[in-house]
Design goal:
By secondary structure, the protein is mainly α. Helices cover 66% and strands 0% of the residues. The termini are far apart.
């Protein structure tokens, strides 16, 4: 149930703000769900609430109706080519940590 709630929260964030936060601000709550500190009924209420919020947010969302599939594919191909080229040449791939 924890993953369901986490994914719904991410969906709400995407549709409301157009962003994704990987480190969830409510990590402890998600761990509590995972460890059974909430009843199944309580978790279902959270799911229902999130689905309702997503439905409402979708009515005013600035996200396009359809994804930019061609742009996404070009980006994915570029990322893969970079990773494969780095692997073949022995270069370490970018890890997101850059020196100051």
């Amino acid at each position: 149930m924890m993953h369901t709630i986490r994914l719904l929260q991410v969906a709400l964030e995407i549709i409301s703000h157009g962003t994704v936060t990987n480190k969830r601000p409510n990590r402890q709550e998600l761990l509590d769900i995972k460890h059974g500190k909430f009843s199944y009924t309580e978790n279902l209420h959270k799911v229902d609430s999130l689905v309702s919020q997503i439905t409402e947010a979708s009515k005013t969302s600035s996200l396009p109706e359809e994804p930019a599939t061609a742009e996404v594919m070009r980006t994915l191909i570029n990322i893969r080519q970079t990773l494969y080229n780095n692997h073949q040449t022995g270069n370490k791939p970018f890890t997101g940590n850059q020196p100051d």
